[in-house]
C-alpha cells in the first residue's frame, strides 16, 4: 500500500485546495501553507534518502551519528523557542544535555523491551530515538519557557523570601512545580487521549502498512510509556537545572543570567 | 557589632561602616546613587566583594539564608508569594507580634486578608512586621514609610525605636530629612555609587 507519485499528487491537490480557500477568505496563509508543504516534501524525501543509505551501510557508527544529529536539532529547537533564554551557551546546552540524557535512558529501556538484532538496528533505533526526542523536546521547551517567565514575573516575591532567610529551593519550589506540571501536560494528554480521540501516528502508520492492529496497539503502548517516562525525567531535570542556574551558591536570584 | 569593610560591586563602593548594637545609620543621597545597592550587598542579595561581619563572624562563614535571617533586607516595594497575609508569617506570629501589629495600626483580622486586597500602605506596614517576625539583629530598611500616612509613620518609627532599644542595628534609606533626624544618629551620604 505504498503511495506512488500520482497518489501523492492527489494529496497535494488537497493542500492546494486549502491554500486556495485561504486566499479566497483573505486569511493570508496561502503562502505559508505552500511553503510548509514544499518544505515537508523536500525534508522527508531527503530524510528517506539519507536513512536508506545509512540502513544500507550496516554499521552502528552512522546510525548513532544520525541519532546525534537529531539530538542536536532538538537542543537547537529548545533554545530557539525560549522567549527569555539563558545567557551564553546555556541556552542550548542545558536543554540539549537533559534531552539527550532522558532520551538515552528511554531508548535503552525501549531496546531492552524490543530486543532488535543487533541492538543498533536502524529500523528500531532511529524511529525510537526520534519519537522520544520529539516528545522530550516539546516538554522541556514548554517547561523552561514557563519557568523563566514565572521567575521574572515573581521576582519581588522570590527575593522577599530569600531576604527573609529562605533557601533558593524553598523560594523557587512553587515555580518549579508548576513549570514541571505545564511541561508534562502534552504527554499526559497524549496518553489519555490515545485511541479514543486520535490514533497515534505510529500506530496509524503500522496499521496502514498492513500490520495487525493488536500488535500495533501493544507497540504503541510501549512507546507512550517511554515518552511519558522520558518527558517526566527530562522536564524535571531541565527545570531543576534551570532553577540552579538562575540562583547561586549564596542563594541569590541571578536574573542577570537570562538574556 | 556590624562591620562593613570595603564592600563594593562594579561601580558601587567601596563602603566602610561599623555599627554597634542599637545604633541606627541613615543612608542618604539622590535617587540612583546606590543606596539600595548598598543595602542589597550587605544582605548578600547581590554578588559583592569585601567583608561584612556580625559580632566578628564573617558572612561567608555561614550559609546565606542564616545570614539573611540575622541581617534582613526590606525592599522599598516588598514582594509577596502567597494568597493570604498569614501564609507570609510564622504560625505563632499573630500572637507574638500583637503589640507591634497594633502600633502599626493594623487590625487583628489582617492575617486573614488576601494580599491582593491590601493597600500600598498596608503592604508596607505588613512587610515591616514580617521582617521583624524573624527576630533579625540587623534591619536594612529601604524607604520603609514612603507610602504611609503621618500616624502610621509614627507607629512604624515607634516599633523600630523599641527594637533598637533591645539591640537592633538599623541601616535606613529615607528621603525624609525629618525622619532621618528622628531615627538615626549617624549618616552615610552616598553619591554616584560612592560615599560622599
Automatic annotation (TrEMBL), chain A:
<feature type="transmembrane region" description="Helical">
    <location>
        <begin position="92"/>
        <end position="114"/>
    </location>
</feature>
<dbReference type="InterPro" id="IPR005226">
    <property type="entry name" value="UPF0014_fam"/>
</dbReference>
<feature type="transmembrane region" description="Helical">
    <location>
        <begin position="187"/>
        <end position="209"/>
    </location>
</feature>
<feature type="transmembrane region" description="Helical">
    <location>
        <begin position="126"/>
        <end position="151"/>
    </location>
</feature>
<feature type="transmembrane region" description="Helical">
    <location>
        <begin position="221"/>
        <end position="242"/>
    </location>
</feature>
<keyword id="KW-0472">Membrane</keyword>
<protein>
    <submittedName>
        <fullName>ABC transporter permease</fullName>
    </submittedName>
</protein>
<keyword id="KW-1133">Transmembrane helix</keyword>
<feature type="transmembrane region" description="Helical">
    <location>
        <begin position="6"/>
        <end position="27"/>
    </location>
</feature>
<comment type="similarity">
    <text>Belongs to the UPF0014 family.</text>
</comment>
<dbReference type="Pfam" id="PF03649">
    <property type="entry name" value="UPF0014"/>
</dbReference>
<keyword id="KW-0812">Transmembrane</keyword>
<feature type="transmembrane region" description="Helical">
    <location>
        <begin position="61"/>
        <end position="80"/>
    </location>
</feature>
<dbReference type="GO" id="GO:0005886">
    <property type="term" value="C:plasma membrane"/>
</dbReference>
UniProtKB/TrEMBL annotation, chain B:
<feature type="domain" description="ABC transporter">
    <location>
        <begin position="2"/>
        <end position="196"/>
    </location>
</feature>
<dbReference type="InterPro" id="IPR003593">
    <property type="entry name" value="AAA+_ATPase"/>
</dbReference>
<protein>
    <submittedName>
        <fullName>ATP-binding cassette domain-containing protein</fullName>
    </submittedName>
</protein>
<dbReference type="GO" id="GO:0005524">
    <property type="term" value="F:ATP binding"/>
</dbReference>
<dbReference type="Pfam" id="PF00005">
    <property type="entry name" value="ABC_tran"/>
</dbReference>
<keyword id="KW-0547">Nucleotide-binding</keyword>
<dbReference type="InterPro" id="IPR027417">
    <property type="entry name" value="P-loop_NTPase"/>
</dbReference>
<keyword id="KW-0067">ATP-binding</keyword>
<dbReference type="InterPro" id="IPR003439">
    <property type="entry name" value="ABC_transporter-like_ATP-bd"/>
</dbReference>
<dbReference type="GO" id="GO:0016887">
    <property type="term" value="F:ATP hydrolysis activity"/>
</dbReference>
Amino acid at each position: 500500500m505504498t503511495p506512488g507519485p500520482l497518489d501523492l499528487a492527489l494529496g497535494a491537490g488537497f493542500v492546494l485546495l486549502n491554500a486556495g480557500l485561504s486566499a479566497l477568505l483573505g486569511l493570508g496563509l496561502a503562502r505559508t501553507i505552500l511553503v510548509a508543504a514544499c518544505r515537508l516534501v523536500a525534508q522527508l524525501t531527503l530524510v528517506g534518502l539519507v536513512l536508506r543509505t545509512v540502513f544500507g551501510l550496516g554499521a552502528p557508527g552512522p546510525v548513532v551519528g544520525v541519532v546525534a544529529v537529531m539530538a542536536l536539532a532538538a537542543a537547537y529547537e529548545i533554545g530557539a523557542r525560549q522567549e527569555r533564554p539563558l545567557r551564553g551557551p546555556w541556552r542550548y546546552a542545558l536543554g540539549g544535555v537533559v534531552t539527550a540524557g532522558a532520551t538515552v535512558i528511554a531508548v535503552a529501556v525501549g531496546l531492552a523491551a524490543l530486543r532488535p538484532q543487533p541492538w543498533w538496528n536502524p529500523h528500531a533505533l532511529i524511529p525510537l530515538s526520534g519519537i522520544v526526542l520529539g516528545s522530550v523536546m516539546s516538554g522541556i521547551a514548554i517547561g523552561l519557557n514557563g519557568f523563566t517567565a514565572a521567575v521574572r514575573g515573581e521576582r519581588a516575591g522570590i527575593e522577599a523570601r530569600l531576604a527573609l532567610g529562605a533557601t533558593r529551593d524553598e523560594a523557587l519550589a512553587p515555580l518549579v512545580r508548576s513549570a514541571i506540571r505545564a511541561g508534562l501536560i502534552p504527554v499526559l494528554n497524549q496518553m489519555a487521549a490515545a485511541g479514543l480521540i486520535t490514533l497515534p501516528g505510529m500506530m496509524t502508520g503500522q496499521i496502514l502498512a498492513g500490520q495487525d492492529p493488536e500488535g500495533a496497539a501493544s507497540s504503541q503502548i510501549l512507546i507512550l510509556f517511554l515518552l511519558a517516562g522520558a518527558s517526566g525525567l527530562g522536564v524535571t531535570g531541565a527545570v531543576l537545572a534551570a532553577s540552579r542556574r538562575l540562583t547561586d551558591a549564596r542563594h541569590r536570584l541571578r536574573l542577570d543570567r537570562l538574556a | 557589632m556590624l562591620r562593613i569593610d570595603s564592600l563594593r560591586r562594579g561601580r558601587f563602593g567601596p563602603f566602610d561602616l561599623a555599627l554597634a548594637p542599637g545604633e541606627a545609620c541613615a543612608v542618604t543621597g539622590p535617587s540612583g546613587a546606590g543606596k539600595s545597592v548598598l543595602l542589597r550587598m550587605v544582605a548578600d542579595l547581590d554578588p559583592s566583594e569585601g567583608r561584612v561581619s556580625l559580632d566578628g563572624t564573617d558572612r561567608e562563614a555561614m550559609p546565606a539564608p542564616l545570614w539573611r535571617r540575622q541581617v534582613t533586607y526590606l525592599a522599598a516595594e516588598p514582594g509577596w508569594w502567597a494568597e493570604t497575609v498569614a501564609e507570609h508569617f510564622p504560625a505563632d506570629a499573630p500572637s507574638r507580634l500583637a503589640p507591634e501589629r497594633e502600633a502599626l495600626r493594623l487590625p487583628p483580622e489582617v492575617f486573614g486578608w488576601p494580599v491582593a486586597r491590601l493597600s500600598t500602605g498596608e503592604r508596607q506596614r505588613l512587610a515591616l512586621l514580617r521582617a521583624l517576625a524573624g527576630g533579625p539583629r540587623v534591619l536594612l530598611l529601604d524607604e520603609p514609610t514612603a507610602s504611609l500616612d503621618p500616624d502610621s509613620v509614627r507607629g512604624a518609627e515607634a516599633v523600630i525605636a523599641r527594637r533598637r532599644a533591645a539591640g537592633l542595628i538599623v541601616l535606613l534609606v529615607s528621603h525624609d530629612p525629618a525622619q532621618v533626624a528622628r531615627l538615626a544618629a549617624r549618616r552615610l551620604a552616598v553619591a554616584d555609587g560612592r560615599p560622599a
